[in-house]
Specification:
132 residues, alpha+beta, Immunoglobulin-like, 2 domains, elongated
Length: 132
């Protein structure tokens, strides 16, 4: 078996074995391999994201890593014209109508327990002559 195949097998085995583990077992690790919980409570499916001006984007979804219920999402600064943040679902969607250099936006996520997390998301709006 090649090293790449062994690595895939280890990762798949590790993922499958963690599905039925308790939180304490996850912290201890699997077969001596330490597992670290994600320090980021929320991430986005595309981050950084490069979109093309005047082209509808594939929705950019939040992924919740801490198991908490999200009540609202907010963003600063405002997204480029044509892009929107759904404040209930956290989805970034739309058709950017202006060019924009890579900019870091801060999405503030508020959880049902009133805790918050600030998530940086980098968005770049390129001209139609540039590949994403």
């Amino acid at each position: 078996m090649h090293i790449r195949q062994k690595t895939k097998l280890i990762v798949i085995t590790l993922l499958l074995s963690t599905l039925s583990m308790s939180c304490e077992e996850l912290i201890r690790g699997v077969d001596g391999i330490a597992l670290v919980a994600s320090p980021i409570p929320v991430s986005y499916t595309a981050n950084p994201a490069t979109y093309l001006q005047n082209k509808f984007i594939v929705n950019n979804f939040p992924v919740i890593h801490n198991g908490k219920t999200v009540t609202t999402y907010a963003i600063t600064p405002a997204l480029p014209a044509g892009l929107h943040l759904n404040t209930t679902t956290g989805i970034i969607y739309g058709t950017p109508t202006v060019l924009a250099t890579p900019t870091t936006y801060t999405i503030t996520v508020t959880f049902s327990d009133a805790s918050t997390a600030d998530i940086p998301v980098v968005i770049d709006i390129a001209g139609n002559n540039r590949c994403s």
